[in-house]
Amino acid sequence: MEIFDGYGKFKKIGRHGCYGPGETEDVEAAAQICKRLDIPYYTFDLREAYRKHVIGYFKHEYLLGRTPNPCVVCNQKIKFGFLLEKAMEKGVGFQFFATGHYAKLAKTGGRFLLKKAEDRSKDQTYFLYRLTRKQLSRTLFPLGEYTKAQVKKIARSMELETAYKAESQDFVAKNDYAVLFNEEEVKGGDIVDENGNLLGRHRGIIHYTIGQRRGLGIASDRPLYVTNIDAENNRIVVGSRENLFSKGLIAKDLNLMAIDRLD
């Protein structure tokens, strides 16, 4: 699928990111592998949907002072949503949708459940947690029973180019999310302690996340961490490590695969 539409201030072509100008290399590599294996190859333009549902979500959350996970939304709405809809729309016949995620699938009591992959260090079930039972019912995870090393070995034995490519887990290259924001969207502001005392200035709240210690640009005789991002007042609040802990949380977007409801 094609998702990069040129949006963002990318300085150069970078290979190590899901979203970016390096996408062309991935598309070409996939086409070559399909040609070698003598299987049909299709490319679907999902740039508009990706911009709206993934980039839009990502920017919205960051500007609210939250740290989003674009991979979760991409899997639910793009890969397992619009991509399959587009394939069916174009008349591509298929019974199951197989992906390269490291995850396992089990059916218990009529329910399809996600299970951790054999390679726990590469397990990706977290990024798939929002998939519906319907989506899971037609999905296959062939890599779930293998380790990454085993998969690489198989790819090398088949002389596939992907066996020698650098691994990429970043949304954008080097996690430089700032390339997705315009200058008018990112405004500097105050860095304060939990009593409101001014300690310095920040470059824009998109550059910070809760728990961050490095790159704050302020001097202190004790370690300081980002304890709160006050988006409404464009302030970064810092404090001691102890202030990072809470006694509770508010969760949303739960996906109860194994049960109907929480009692």
Task: Give a structural overview.
By secondary structure, the protein is of the alpha/beta class. It contains 5 helices and 8 strands. It folds into 2 domains: 23-177, Rossmann fold; 187-244, SH3 type barrels (Roll), CATH 2.30.30. The chain has a 4-stranded mixed sheet, with no helix packed on it. It has a two-stranded parallel sheet with strand order 1-4. A two-stranded antiparallel ribbon has the order 2-3. The chain is globular, with a radius of gyration of 21 Å.
Q: In CATH terms, what is the architecture of the largest domain?
A: 3-Layer(aba) Sandwich
Any idea how many domains? 2
The helix content is: 25-40%
CATH level 3 topology of the largest domain: Rossmann fold
Ranges where pLDDT stays below 50 over 5 or more residues in a row are none
What's the number of extended β-strand segments? 8
Q: How big is the Rg?
A: 21 Å
What is the ordering of alpha helices and beta strands?
Answer: HHHEEEHEHEEEE
User: Can you tell me the overall shape?
Assistant: globular
Strand content bin: 5-15%
Provide mean pLDDT, rounded.
88
**SS class:** alpha/beta
The top level CATH class name of the largest domain: Alpha Beta
User: What do we call the CATH homologous superfamily of the largest domain?
Assistant: HUPs
Largest sheet, in brief, is: 4 strands, mixed
Strands of the biggest beta sheet: in what spatial order?
6-5-8-7
Distance between the termini: 41 Å
Number of helices: 5
